[in-house]
Amino acid sequence: MEREQEHKERIEQAISILETISGDFTTPRNIRRAAKQSIDALRDETLSPAVRAANAISILDEISQDPNMPVPTRTKIWQV
Q1: pLDDT exceeds 80 at position 1
Q2: CA dist 26 to 29, 56, 75, Å?
Q3: Which helix (H) or strand (E) is 6 found in, with range?
Q4: Which is nearest to 15 in space by CA: 51, 53, 45, 48?
């Protein structure tokens, strides 16, 4: 039960950072879109926390290679 609570807290922290990225209009649109997709993946309660995290990581890993990504945004994505 304690581990489940820890997973929820970490997912909420990640969602919070991703919401900051998706709401930042100085960030390119494709990166904001990937942040929103990651939020959706993390909120999908039909999957286990591990699968939700893996899906979000996959989306973020792909977009983190974008050369147009501002450095502060890249740092936030690495935090997630």
Answers
A1: no
A2: 9, 22, 15
A3: helix 2-22
A4: 53
Is the entire prediction scored with pTM above 0.85?
yes
SS3 70: coil
Domain span at residue 51? 2-79
The CATH number that applies at residue 73 is 1.20.1440.50
Spatial separation of the C-alpha atoms in residues 58 and 52, rounded to whole Å:
10
Number of domains in the chain: 1
Task: Compute the distance between CA of residue 3 and CA of residue 61 in angstroms, rounded to an integer.
Answer: 25
pLDDT tens sequence across 55-70: 999 999 999 888 888 8
Lookup: tokens for 63 = 């977009």
- Which of the four pLDDT bands, split at 50, 70 and 90, describes residue 46? very high
